[in-house]
Amino acid sequence: MPYYDFWRNKKITSLGRRWSRQAAEYTLHMAARYVDTLDRVVEIGPGRGALVNVCRSQGMIYIGIDANIGLLKEIEHGNAVCSFVPPIPLDDGVCDAIIANHVLEHMVGLPQAQMLIDEMRRIVRPGGVVVITSPDALWEGIEFWDCDYSHNFVTTARRMHQLFCDQALDVAYLGYVHNHLEGVMGALIGQIIRVVPYRAFAATPVSPLYVEQLYKLRMTFARSVLIIGRRREH
């Protein structure tokens, strides 16, 4: 059954690729702050390969996992696993960091979300980190549901913090990010783009009065939650 082909088939601009790389660089930089050694990275949902390119430029070992075989074609053979998660088809403690950008919200309810976090904790080594970025439903409101038909599990900073604590992860960092921008600058850019109209009244996504690129810009710089949890040594 096709899964996420609608997203894979979308065209991406050079500016979009640049923003994706900046987001990947930011995520990897944040992960490195909270782990003693960062040499081995596993990513769930690699998208178009922004993080794998950043990892390889820094000489890291990378494995990507995705249910869409078309997206995995951008990752070299041997470093990609085609699979739905959870469970995660990897051995225990195989990486220093496992990263999932905009994946948690696709879980079908609380039990699957709990299982995903538990599996991510399992495959990271003791002292390693679980890194998740997900949209902030408090910021996006109804657009949390409208932007992607497969969004199911509601993600906010409070809910994600509670989830990590219950899955025996020590929360090392919890904050907001707008793609790769944080703090006042990120909030300001996000708010400005948020008020830019992207469609005429009653225009649907197939209407010429609906500007898809402006909508994508809006969602790119919407507020997301970044949480980093460390697996306990014992």
Task: Please tag this protein with its features.
seven-stranded mixed beta sheet; 10 helices; alpha/beta; 38% helix; 21% strand; 234 residues
Count of runs of 4 or more consecutive helical residues: 10
Instruction: Report the principal-axis shape.
Output: globular
Low-confidence regions: none
Span from first to last CA? Answer: 41 Å
Average pLDDT over all residues: 94
- Report strand %: 15-25%
SSE string, helix = H, strand = E? Answer: HHEHEHEEHEHHHEHHE
Structural class: alpha/beta
Question: Could you please describe the fold and organization of this structure?
Answer:
It is a single chain. With 234 residues, this protein is an alpha/beta fold. The chain has helices at residues 5-8, 14-33, 50-57, 69-72, 109-123, 137-140, 143-146, 157-166, 183-194, 212-220, and strands at 40-44, 61-66, 80-82, 95-101, 124-135, 169-177, 224-231. The protein has ten helices and seven strands. It has a seven-stranded mixed β-sheet, sandwiched between helices. β4 (95-101), α5 and β5 (124-135) form a beta-alpha-beta unit. The longest helix has 20 residues, at 14-33. The termini are far apart.
Summarize the structure.
The chain is built from ten helices and seven strands.
List the helices and strands and how they pair.
Elements: H1 5-8, H2 14-33, E1 40-44, H3 50-57, E2 61-66, H4 69-72, E3 80-82, E4 95-101, H5 109-123, E5 124-135, H6 137-140, H7 143-146, H8 157-166, E6 169-177, H9 183-194, H10 212-220, E7 224-231
Parallel strand pairs: 1-2, 1-4, 2-3, 4-5
Antiparallel strand pairs: 5-7, 6-7
Helix pairs in contact: 2-3
